[in-house]
Amino acid sequence: MALKPNKKTQAASNAKSEKVKKPKVQQTHSGGKGTLWSRINPVTSVGSKLFLFFFLSICLIVSIVGWQSYTTSKDIITKEVSKSSHQTIIQVREKLGMVYDSFEATTLQFILDDAYSERVSDLVDVLGDQGANQYEKLQVTKTLEETMLNIILADSRIDSLSFISTDGTLLVSTDTLNVKKGLAEEDWFQKATELDGRPYWAGTRKGGFISEQGIDTFALTRLVKNKMSGETYGVILMELKLSVIGDQLNNIQLGETGSKYVIDENHQIVFAANPDLIAQSTDLLKNVKKTDRLSDTETVTREDGEELLLVYDQSPSNNWTVASTIAISELTESTSEIANITTIMLLVSIVLALLVGFIMVKLVAAPLSNLRNLMNEGERGNLAVRTKVKTKDEIGQVGESFNRMMEEITKLVVATNQSASDVLDTAVHLSTVSKNTAISAKEITLATEQIAEGASTLAVEAERGNEITNHFSQQMNKVVDSNQELGVSAQQIQRAGEKGSHHMAELITKTNTTEEMTRAMVARVDRLKENTSSIQKVLDVLHNMTKQTNILSLNATIEASRAGAAGKGFMVVADEIRNLADQSRQNIDVVGQITLSILTEMEETASALAEAYPLYQEQLASVKDASDIFTNVQSEMQSFVESLDETTQSIEQLNRSQQTLSEAMSSVSAVSEESSATSEEVASLSGQQQSASEGLVELAEKLEGLSKSLQESLNRFKTE
Fold first, then answer.
1. SS (H, E, C) 47-79
2. Could you tell me if 62 and 54 are in contact, meaning their C-beta atoms sit under 8 angstroms apart?
3. Helices 568-642 and 651-715 sit at what angle, rounded to 10 degrees?
4. Measured by CB atoms within 10 angstroms of the end CB, which terminus of the chain is less buried, N or C?
5. Which alpha helices (DSSP H) does 564-650 contain, by range?
6. Which domains does the chain show, CATH number per domain?
7. Cut 0.85: pTM above it
8. How do residues 242-288 score in pLDDT, each as one tens digit?
9. Residues 649-665: what's their mean pLDDT?
């Protein structure tokens, strides 16, 4: 019989159907006084990051460009000044070289010029002649001295000329005041002797080379020899005024504070604008790169830490170096304007960066913050939130995607809620059917037990009838002797036959009832299988819905990953939906397994009932046969009573009837035992059916609990 849902189930189903309606969409958009700043975390906000990016980028670029411009202009100015200064120094060195060459040519006349050479030779000869008188000596000395004076008068740059013998004795000099002693020990004298006629330039000496109280001079020395015989006469010493170098260096101006020097090969200052530095040792050229001829520009650091531009060029005539130093700070003084402009532009760029950063925060951070808050609302279960899209850029597209996603999730939750309601109704209906099936199984068990008791009683009665028949056989041997006793026995047999017929009628009635109940139970099990199949269909629908939910959550995850950092909240919602879909799928799988188990138990019950049904029919046929036998026995016993007088004559026929009766009673006993065993088996099957029905009730209650759990999980989402 078909089961109808109770009133509570129908009312709950109607209430849930009325509750699931089209959600009311809550439109939300960014705005308000506190929206931009009160909801933004300055540490993690993308607006703050963009602001810092633009601010630092602009400031860094302006600073780098300004500093690069400053250093580049400084380097360019330094290089250009270095080139021009180097060219100037080279020109000065070339002029000084020509001056050096002219003085060397003058001293060379004492070797190459016959007149000069002859006077020197005469002087040496006369002074070396022991027989020469004083007048001759004075005469040759005066002749050479006049020659030297003429040279000095011809060139005012020459301070004095002196001729010294090889033993260091001053023979002739234009400066005879306070003559120094030990000239042969002077380094310049030894150097001139070693060079064997080649010129040697001696650096500046304080007070001069010959006189102890003269002016500061530098000198050119040369060993004078006979050009023909190679005889050595002595050393010619030409002292030159410092104005020879000063006139050339003073004509150039390298910066306001530039210093100019002439340094000999021993790192002694030959000339400097500061008189105190003349004849002093200097380290200015000690660290320069050693080459065949020093000529270059370098940057050096003074003891006080100031950087200087060093320009130098070495003269090939005497290896003296013309050098000049210029303070780099003086050269790059004009570049300070670039530094000032850079500072001003940096301040302007800071203001511009602040303005751009504020605009970026306004355009990016505020919409993203609003979208994040809406996603948090969606994460808490409020599916009715929507964002009001105003722009068509990427942020606007993300907002539209968020709205479409929330609409799809809302539809999915509504559909899932409806399906959960249907599953709950089906579970309630299944629970009711299971309970009714359990009650029917109990009734079948009781009826089967009654059938088993009736079959047992029939077996007992059949055994008793068999004993009576045996007793009747014994009495038949005595029937000739005691006919009266035979009549009494016949009457007892007649009563026993009536009683057996009565019991057989009851057995037939109970067997018919058992057959009808078994047929009804088979029909109920078939209907229960149909209901279980409908549950399986509902589970298939729910399984498909979970698949669609997984696909939708996967699409949402992909869209969130495309959105990057802006889609992190969106991705959290998608993960929650995917977890919910997985939980629903697992619950549906559990319900499907339970339903499949119920269906298997029903099929086994139906199979057992189908096997028991033919046994019931065989039992019914056997009972009818036994009833016919009892009827025949009763008829025969009545005939036996009526023809008791003819018993003696028909004793042989009675014996045969007794044998037939004995066999029939044996058959009845066997049939009764078989009916009892069949009844016990049916009772066992009924017990199994009752256990299966109780299990079905438990599974139905579990399905109902899972449906409620699913509905509670869905109720956390607000669609209105």
1. HHHHHHHHHHHHHHHHHHHHHHHHHHHHHHHHH
2. no
3. 170
4. N
5. 568-642
6. 253-331 (3.30.450.20), 399-714 (1.10.287.950)
7. no
8. 888 888 888 777 766 778 889 988 889 999 888 888 888 888 887 77
9. 66
